[in-house]
Design brief:
single chain, mainly alpha
Length: 197
């Protein structure tokens, strides 16, 4: 028989944050391996964007609403729909559902998401260091992508790809930490808890 540590769930609803963080992180890593220049934009990335980065994060956000977590609801639902809208931007013109987004419009799209992420970063200052890193690195990623699109400089786009891989890996770490710390009932993977004053 395998020994197990009982997991206590206080409100009867499992913590959706690890799902949302892993969905965001894994999809971000894969897209940014492409941005770094290792392979072409393909259906693997689009499928991850729809089903894991998109739908799984929206589900996590809805569960966060049931847990009365406004930050989690706003972040996961928003980034879930970010992934769905990004796939839409790529696929819709190929289906004849509108004109392909221009470089300027993509700069505006990525820029507004960068601003949104920067605003949410201030919420992480009351949460933990791991989330602070995720949101700070995501803010930098969005603005590097804006700079890459604005200048057309492939080196900046590749730099954004590498930075995005780091951002995605940090989200995966934070998500897995949430799972393992709960399962073992102790800090297995530290996330840098912020002490409230």
């Amino acid at each position: 028989m395998i020994p197990t540590t009982p997991v206590t769930v206080k409100d009867g609803i499992a913590n959706p944050a690890p799902l949302g963080l892993c969905a965001f992180g894994m999809t971000t890593v894969l897209l940014n391996i492409h941005n770094a220049g290792f392979f072409e934009l393909n259906t693997m990335i689009l499928a991850m964007g729809i089903f894991y980065g998109g739908l799984a994060q929206v589900i996590a956000g809805v569960i966060e609403a049931k847990k009365n977590n406004t930050f989690g609801l706003t972040a996961f639902t928003s980034y879930g729909f970010f992934w769905l809208s990004l796939v839409g931007l790529l696929v819709m013109p190929k289906l004849g559902w509108g004109v392909k987004a221009s470089e300027l419009s993509m700069c505006c799209y990525l820029g507004i998401w960068g601003l949104f992420t920067f605003c949410l970063f201030f919420g992480t200052l009351r949460l933990n260091r791991a989330l602070q890193f995720v949101f700070a690195s995501l803010t930098i990623l969005f603005f590097l992508l804006v700079l890459g699109d604005a200048t057309g400089n492939e080196s900046i786009k590749h730099l954004a790809g590498y930075e995005g891989i780091i951002c995605g890996l940090s989200a995966i770490y934070t998500g897995i930490a949430g799972v393992l710390n709960e399962v073992y009932g102790k800090v297995v993977m530290p996330i840098g808890t912020v002490t409230s004053k």
